[in-house]
Specification:
Layout lengths: L1 H21 L13 H15 L5 E5 H7 L4 H8 L9 E2 L5 H8 L9 H5 L1 H9 L1 E3 L7 E3 L12 H4 E11 L5 E13 L4 H19 L2 H30 L5
Antiparallel strand pairs: 1-2, 3-4, 5-6
Helix pairs in contact: 2-9, 7-9
The structure holds heme C.
């Protein structure tokens, strides 16, 4: 028994040490898909900063408005920044060929990116950009090394440099290991504000990858109530049936 407790404690300590050491590179999104305010803020950031390069071909403006509880006027005035119509898909005018030519690689459609990468990956990706003179566009990313995407949100986050350390493993092979970030230019937001903004943005990507999730979450308590109620009825029935069985 003592052994098991010790093993469990060891496991907890190891996990804590691992996550603490790794926390800057691999952060959790902790987004809340039930918060319409957060989703609206995320949509705003997406329309302003991402839709230029990343379409959402499986999403329509009017669907987003309905799900985020916005009227057509609110949607068209504050979120549709192009000459797109309310019923249109969230497409972009840049073709894949143009994207490939301009950035080396076109930005992919992001409708279901949260399903493909997961929200924590997305969150980490958007906080892990750093300045790198060796890259064509001047940026690099810890989560997606050598990414073709420039740091679009740098004015908010500021500019950070990454420090690496040369590490040699048992076989004598050396590789670079990330040590820390150093802020070289302050952004318009502090770290907490920036992460809150990114969390909202990731929340919007999470919603868009499965809009039905909102409905499912709304129904969940009722389904559970229904199941509990019928379990109770079944129990009463059982008590009744077995009353005369001795
Ligand atoms: C100037 C064009 C441009 C803008 C604006 C832009 N991106 Fe990108 N993005 C790219 C390109 C190009 C890639 C491909 C990177 C690669 O694979 O090397 C990319 C890749 C990505 C990926 C990784 C996809 C994957 O799984 O490989 C994500 C996620 C992403 N962008 C999110 C965003 C978000 C969120 C915004 C808005 C804040 C944004 N992008 C704005 C050009 C852009």
């Amino acid at each position: 028994m003592k052994k098991i407790v010790l093993m469990a404690l060891g496991l907890v300590a190891a996990t804590a040490a691992w996550s603490a050491g790794d926390s800057f590179v691999n952060e959790k999104a902790h987004n809340n898909i039930r918060s319409k305010d957060s989703l609206r803020r995320g949509a705003q950031t997406y329309m302003n900063y991402c839709l230029g390069c990343h379409s959402m071909d499986f999403q329509r403006y009017n669907r987003v408005a309905k799900d985020l509880e916005l009227t057509e006027d609110e949607m068209m005035e504050s979120l549709v920044l192009t000459d797109a119509k309310f019923v249109d898909k969230m497409e972009i005018s840049m073709t894949k060929e143009q994207g490939d030519a301009w950035f080396g690689k076109a930005g992919p459609d992001l409708t279901v990116i949260a399903k493909a990468r997961g929200v924590d990956w997305l969150f980490s990706y958007l906080v892990n950009f750093y300045q790198d003179e060796n890259q064509a566009n001047g940026w690099n990313n810890l989560t997606l090394p050598n990414a073709a995407m420039p740091h679009i949100l740098w004015e908010m986050q500021g500019i950070q440099k990454a420090h690496f350390e040369e590490v040699t493993d048992e076989d004598g092979n050396s590789h670079k290991e990330f040590k820390s970030f150093e802020k070289v230019v302050e952004g318009r937001m502090n770290d907490t504000e920036y992460r809150d903004m990114v969390r909202d943005l990731v929340n919007f990507l999470d919603y868009s990858s499965e809009p039905a999730k909102l409905i499912r979450m709304d129904y969940a308590p009722w389904v559970l109530l229904f199941v509990s109620f019928f379990t109770f009825l079944a129990y009463l029935l059982k008590v009744n049936y077995f009353r005369d069985v001795h």
